[in-house]
Amino acid sequence: MEKTRKSGTTSPRLSREESQARTRERLIETATRLFVGQGYGGTSIRDIAEQAGYSQGAFYSNFESKESLLLEMLRRHMAGEAAHLATLSERAGTSLETVLDDLEAWASTLDQDINWSMLSIELQMQAQRSTTFAVAYRAVWQQHRDALAVWLAQLFAAHGLQPPVGIEALAASFMALAHGLALQRASTGTEVSGRMMVVLLRGLLAMARPA
Amino acid sequence: MEKTRKSGTTSPRLSREESQARTRERLIETATRLFVGQGYGGTSIRDIAEQAGYSQGAFYSNFESKESLLLEMLRRHMAGEAAHLATLSERAGTSLETVLDDLEAWASTLDQDINWSMLSIELQMQAQRSTTFAVAYRAVWQQHRDALAVWLAQLFAAHGLQPPVGIEALAASFMALAHGLALQRASTGTEVSGRMMVVLLRGLLAMARPA
Amino acid sequence: MEKTRKSGTTSPRLSREESQARTRERLIETATRLFVGQGYGGTSIRDIAEQAGYSQGAFYSNFESKESLLLEMLRRHMAGEAAHLATLSERAGTSLETVLDDLEAWASTLDQDINWSMLSIELQMQAQRSTTFAVAYRAVWQQHRDALAVWLAQLFAAHGLQPPVGIEALAASFMALAHGLALQRASTGTEVSGRMMVVLLRGLLAMARPA
Amino acid sequence: MEKTRKSGTTSPRLSREESQARTRERLIETATRLFVGQGYGGTSIRDIAEQAGYSQGAFYSNFESKESLLLEMLRRHMAGEAAHLATLSERAGTSLETVLDDLEAWASTLDQDINWSMLSIELQMQAQRSTTFAVAYRAVWQQHRDALAVWLAQLFAAHGLQPPVGIEALAASFMALAHGLALQRASTGTEVSGRMMVVLLRGLLAMARPA
DNA sequence: GATGAATGAGAGTTCATTCAT
DNA sequence: AATGAATGAACTCTCATTCAT
């Protein structure tokens, strides 16, 4: 499979692997768009393949099943979020204002990337129904929550404060709020910006006692 | 199925309307249970009718379509929530502790009545997909948000405080949080209790400036 | 379901049940024809429904699955064969010539009813692949073999002869021969009549020792 | 898959033709195994290629189509059986016991080589469906029957007996019985050994009149 | 000669909905 | 009002086969 792939010098045409990677990429893009717009259950493989410009068979050359495509999306989702959180954590020791700006920036990313938010909710709904998927989803979710918890812990510690509730419950709540807002935006069109998260965090800091 | 068969001659009280109301009621109950467990898309009318002990035709004698059943549910959901909010509002003027206890009580209702929470999310997902439904959903949602906003306004006013952000955004955020937590509970099994809402509200009060 | 079915006096139209029975019958007839001609695997439900003049859905209103249709066929096959064997057994005590004529008559039934023979082979092939089906098939097959064995035992006893091999093995062999001849006829067009069975039985009687 | 990759420089003996022959051989072996276990229709080319350690394309480099592979199998089947019959015929003039032992040996070969038996039935089923295939099958089948008929004729002649029915019908019947028994064994698990053939032949000899 | 991604047709099955009874 | 057989469209998925590499 990877034997003769030195690809010469310029390669005016796509090699086999490149071509398949492209197909796969297009299918994922199309599927993401459709899942967001019509939901996982409301999107057929026919739709995905057709809109991506391929046959249904092409889908099955690239993914084992509809659910395995969703798992692939979950993996990518995870990778993206992990990167965000890493950035957040890196700067957790600096001034409070900087840190809260970082949070707001992250939150507004969620706001803008409505796709990911809705997809994330699709993922959660699917997790409720498929055991296979639930296991995978839970693992990813815990990783996120833990990373966020670490960041929050650093934040409170840096200001000599004691969090008013368990740090993991706090992290979970922020994630819940982000998802809830995304759902609300999608279903009612209301724009309650990610700023709310900053406001709430400020409130928590305001009420916290010294450690 | 064989319950009202003998009523022909002797039971003048279970009139046709009452009998149909009963059918309707049972269909709604069964449908709620199934939607919560398997989702709107994952539940067939055959399932609903069968489990309720009727035929598919009986369903269509009572509802125009699958979606119109969901609209009926939405109406009932609304009525229930309105009642809750009314209670909450009634006592908004009393001591802070009482009021926060009320909030926590309401929040824990959401916690316990996982059925309604999940159904509520199903409703939101459906609102994203069906224009008909979206219009109805938005109206109901705004009523809720406004009632909650009024309650929050009373709360801040009673303590001579100025809310740190628009009162409607605040109300919307609390609803988003409630839904996000329900979704989280369903998909990850995590129990971050409705207490978080009280904690956050305390934080907001702690950071608020005098009016 | 059976409540108001007194059917009056003449019923110019088909009642609900009659109408469905008709549909079911037509589907089975069509399916038999197609299975015989193109095999079980080679016949699609689409084909069956279309050729019978119904929708695919109608098929599923009448049968749970493709295999359950085959099971229904097996049941009918069994009933038919059982009737044949009963007739055979009834007259087992009469003169040898009569009895052998009966056997030949039965064998030539197999000959002529090529449909059943080929279907029977389809059933056997399916039994090799589906566990569900194998269990059902084995039960039916054993019943047949036992009935045939009883008949053969009566035959040998009536002439004071001792069968040269176990009576059940003998019965099984006759069934195998009947199926093998059917298969041969279908695949090569060769007409080796069911008379062979009579010839072989005569041979067995000729070589048998007194009991 | 990785076996012949190093042969580039040092192995002048595994020529292209030999290498291809090897591929072909492995595909046939694997296909035989799979057809027997899952049937012709139940076996995909993907399965065959994968299990043999090749790509689907390799299959099509070696065979025109799925059916042409089956034709190749038929050819080999024929060759093998022809060899058996030749051995049988060679010794047809010796004592009756020897000859019947030979028959039983052949029959038990069929018994043991359940693979060939089931494949043979697959071939017959396919012959019923494909005209191309049917023509080829019929030719092979007639050759077999004729060879067997010659052997039977020699047998009767050697004992100065006159066969009770046409010698070709007799041969066809024995083949039918062999196939029927194989089918029975596969579908019901019943072991009615090939000894039955010997018993029946003895019966025929017992009832035969002098020539 | 061998690869395997992609095709296109078709498989079995499900489902919201209709309508004669 | 209630029945449930029948519809017709859509579903996920499989497969023999093709063809650029």
From TrEMBL, chains A, B, C, D:
Keywords: DNA-binding. Residues 44-63 bind DNA. Residues 1-22 are annotated as: Disordered. Pfam families: TetR_N. Residues 21-81 form the HTH tetR-type domain. GO terms for molecular function: DNA binding. This is TetR/AcrR family transcriptional regulator. The lineage of its organism: Bacteria, Pseudomonadati, Pseudomonadota, Betaproteobacteria, Burkholderiales.
